[in-house]
């Protein structure tokens, strides 16, 4: 292992998807050297065009890096990349690992413990704001882990996000992220239900959204999702329904784990899992409206 203190070691960035690629572009624009990895060829090509080095294999990308960032579908894949595929072993001595994916907090706690013998500190630093804010570098970032590791990551995180919160111990960022997405998903479902009920009563969809946005029913979905993605039927927000369903299952399981029998967090998770089964893994999360529309069309309960 090369020593990370002797030279400005590059950043390895694993997962160049909807979020990862624009985040990497921000890092390159801020002057960091990035070695990215993704099995898909198109984002690798885009990374090279942006001035980075691209690899199909995560272990190769990790070679000699002083910081490794993961932006992957879930914590199981993060573990596979680091320990199964051997990326952790290829890093520079004392390198910092930052999981920016939306992973399950309990998995993160056990991954941190498994990286200790390798001398690799881990922080969880998931993000909120979607593709738009990944592109303009204004993501909200919630960072869990030892304070000195979070401070070490801060200049790198600042290239990708505007609000960086130190949330507490390892896993707390991932817990916060799942809870944020629970609140966000519940708000989107409520807005879609209002559209369906109001629409059946004769209210115009744009009127419903305009009134909500000027009233106490306003939320992020009414402000930034209903018109461009739902009412337009474009359904192209860039955040998949399957990933949202995963986040909601993490939030509901966390409530279970903490022995909190709360009704809505469970029912929202179940609703999104049913939507994923009905609409398929490729559906955009705003297509939850189509799932609710189908339920509404199935007629009165009975
Ligand atoms: P995505 O599916 O677009 O990207 C994931 C990328 O990981 C893909 O390009 C895939 O090829 C790559 N990948 C999968 N396995 C790999 C491996 N073993 N090695 C290297 N690369 C691998 O997903 P996304 O929308 O970019 O989301 C990434 C993470 O960020 C998820 O945890 C998601 O929940 C979270 N997130 C997404 C959004 C959003 O708006 N899309 C917002 C906030 C957080």
Automatic annotation (TrEMBL):
GO terms for molecular function: oxidoreductase activity. The keyword Glycosyltransferase does not apply. It is an enzyme of class 1 (oxidoreductase). Keywords: NAD, Oxidoreductase. Transmembrane segments: none annotated. Residues 11-168 form the 6-phosphogluconate dehydrogenase NADP-binding domain. Its EC number is 1.1.-.-. Signal peptide: none annotated. The keyword Oxidoreductase applies. It comes from the Bacteria. It holds the Pfam family NAD_binding_11. Residues 171-291 form the 3-hydroxyisobutyrate dehydrogenase-like NAD-binding domain. Belongs to the HIBADH-related family. PANTHER family: 3-HYDROXYISOBUTYRATE DEHYDROGENASE-LIKE 1, MITOCHONDRIAL-RELATED. This is NAD(P)-dependent oxidoreductase. It comes from Bosea massiliensis. The lineage of its organism: Bacteria, Pseudomonadati, Pseudomonadota, Alphaproteobacteria, Hyphomicrobiales.
């Amino acid at each position: 292992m090369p020593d990370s203190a002797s030279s400005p070691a590059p950043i390895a960035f694993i997962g160049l998807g909807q979020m990862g690629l624009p985040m990497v572009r921000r890092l390159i624009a801020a002057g960091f050297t990035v070695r990215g990895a993704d099995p898909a060829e198109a984002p690798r090509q885009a990374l090279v065009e942006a001035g980075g080095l691209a690899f199909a294999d995560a272990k190769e990308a990790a070679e000699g890096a002083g910081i490794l960032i993961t932006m992957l579908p879930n914590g199981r894949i993060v573990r596979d990349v680091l320990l199964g595929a051997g990326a952790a072993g290829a890093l520079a001595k004392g390198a910092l690992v930052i999981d920016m994916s939306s992973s399950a907090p309990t998995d993160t706690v056990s991954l941190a413990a498994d990286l200790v013998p390798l001398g690799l500190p881990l922080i969880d630093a998931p993000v909120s704001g979607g593709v738009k804010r990944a592109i303009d570098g204004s993501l909200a970032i919630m960072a869990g882990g030892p304070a000195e590791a979070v401070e070490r990551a801060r200049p790198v995180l600042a290239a990708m996000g505007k609000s960086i919160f130190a949330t507490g111990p390892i896993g707390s960022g991932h817990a916060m992220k799942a809870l944020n997405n629970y609140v966000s998903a519940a708000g989107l479902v409520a807005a879609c239900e209002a559209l369906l009920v109001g629409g059946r009563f004769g209210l115009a969809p744009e009127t419903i959204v305009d009134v909500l946005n000027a009233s106490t029913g306003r939320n992020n979905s009414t402000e930034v999702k209903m018109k461009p993605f739902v009412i337009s039927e474009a359904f192209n927000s860039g955040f998949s329904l399957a990933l949202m369903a995963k986040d909601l299952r993490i939030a509901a399981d966390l409530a279970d784990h903490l022995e909190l029998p709360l009704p809505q967090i469970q029912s929202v998770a179940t609703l999104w899992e049913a939507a994923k089964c009905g609409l398929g893994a490729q559906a955009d999360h705003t297509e939850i409206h189509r799932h609710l529309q189908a339920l509404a069309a199935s007629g009165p309960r009975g």
